Amino acid sequence: MSFSRIVSSAAWVPRGARAVTTLKETIAAQLPAKRDYIKMLQKEYGDVVLGEVTVDQCIGGARGVKCMLWETSLLDANEGIRFRGHTIPDLQKTLPSFTGPAGAGEPTPEGLIWLLLTGNIPTKEEEASLTAELHKNGDIPPEAEAVIRGLPHKTMHPMTQLKIGLLACQPESKFARAYQEGTRKTEYWDPVYDDIISVISKLPKIASLVYRCTYHDGKIVEDRGSDFSGNFCRMLGYNDPSFDELMRLYMVIHSDHEGGNASAHATRLCGSTLSDPYLAYVGGLSALAGPLHGLANQEVLRWIQELQAKFKAEGRAVTAETITEFAWDTLKSGKIIPGYGHAVLRKTDPRYTCQREFGLKHMPDDELFKIVDTIYQVMPGILTEHGKTKNPYPNVDSHSGVLLWHYGFTQYDYYTVLFGVSRAMGALSQLFWDRALGLPLERPKSLTPEWIENFAKNTKK
Fold first, then answer.
1. I want to staple 107 with a disulfide (CB 3.0 to 4.6 A). Which of 47, 95, 167, 274 is the partner?
2. What superkingdom does the record give (predicted)?
3. What are phi and psi of 125, to 5 degrees?
4. With 70 as the cut, is the pLDDT of residue 244 above it?
5. How does DSSP assign 316-371, residue by residue?
6. Distance between CA atoms of 35 and 241, rounded to whole angstroms?
7. Domain with CATH 1.10.230.10 in the chain
8. Displacement of CA 304 from its chain's centroid (Å)
């Protein structure tokens, strides 16, 4: 029987018949079965070889090496991401929505958090209980707010501000305090749960303060009568139901993407040292701030706007033909096409597809949206002909910046902050289970170039 099936059956009753329980109570009921399952895996299959590691993989960033337990999501090269076994279209049909019954609007992040942590689709009542818990934990200490407001907003990158803001909240860590007090390892899960909920809850307030102080007047208006995303939008200064829906979709699809990506892995690595979730997720945010990880959507926008400017100056329309010309100019100059290709995927990213569907519903006549759609028609063929891209199809970043721009969210440098608020849901859900299951400190073996050469020569003899 599978891991998820065992734990889901531990206290399972039909959704409509379930008594409303808190998320923490639901998890507590699952803990014994989950711990037994991990022990069984190690006892029964501990010596099974999962895969081999080549020299290319060792030197090339451990790409594709099967060496990490990650239960919240799984990425298939052809199918895309599954969250606890559910595809994005599945989530859009089954997770609760704020605007009506499941399927009536975009799924809420709190519904996804419940799913990631428990493996269960929550009822509307369970989702509402988590919304209340997130709102309850959403305030930040006055000292932390003062730190954020005192930062040099015009010269400091928003991601740096976000990390400083979260670090300023770290003294509230219940896990750090519990560890110092000698809490038993089997009980780590309780304060770690409190911490991950606290971090997820506080990030929108921290992020909104960064946004309002950097680009506006610093004033924050909250709406705790709305859901998690709606309140975030209000704090950012937006009061458009359509933008609320975009934020729900954005947060859900950016929440988790297996454990090997840099931000998720950095969070997990830091947490494995028993750093508390505040400190661990600052590690994840530091990885996300790197240009190879979290900046791609703004690079897409820049590329499209450069394309627009070039052909406007030449008095030419943006068409499939001119896009093709610009794409080849980009490739021949040694650059890449931003928003295309993926380290794992070999088909169109389903996160791109759901954003395209959102655009067709909410902004079909938007100029940038139409350009992105035309790029989608021609780019796979161009990249296939070019021959240097394993995956010639669009990824999540190909669309997200354009959708944000449509709503007047034009501050490029801030886009990664939205990513950071979203990714906390997946990275910290897994971090919770790392501590609840007693997973050890990460400590892979490193090799020198000389050792690799000698080993390879001896192997080939």
1. 95
2. Eukaryota
3. -70, -40
4. yes
5. ----HHHHHHHHHHHHHTT---TTB--SS--S--HHHHHHHHHHHHH-TT-HHHHH
6. 42
7. 125-430
8. 24
| SS3 category, 401 | helix
CA atoms within 13 A of residue 410's CA, in its CB half-sphere: 5
pLDDT per position as a tens digit, 44-75: 999 999 999 999 999 999 989 999 999 999 99
Dihedral angle at the C-alpha atoms of 289, 155, 143, 435, nearest 10 degrees?
Answer: 10
125-430: CATH homologous superfamily?
Answer: Cytochrome P450-Terp, domain 2 (1.10.230.10)
Count of other CB atoms within 10 angstroms of residue 346? 15
Q: Reply yes or no on whether 293 is catalytic.
A: yes
Report the pLDDT averaged over residues 322-341.
94
Active site residue 153: no
Is pLDDT of 7 > 70? Answer: no
CA distance linking residue 98 with residue 414, whole number of Å: 26
Catalytic entry in 190, 195, 397, 434? 397
Q: Which of 440, 459, 439, 442 is nearest to 451 (CA)?
A: 459
Q: Residues 415-459: pLDDT tens digits?
A: 999 999 999 999 999 999 999 999 999 999 999 999 999 999 999
> Annotated catalytic, 397?
yes
**Topology classification of domain 3-124:** Citrate Synthase; domain 1 (1.10.580)
On whether the CB atoms of residues 322 and 304 are closer than 8 A, the answer is no
pTM above 0.90, yes or no: yes
Residues 6 or more apart whose CB falls under 8 angstroms from that of 248 comprise: 97, 98, 105, 106, 107, 108, 109, 227, 229
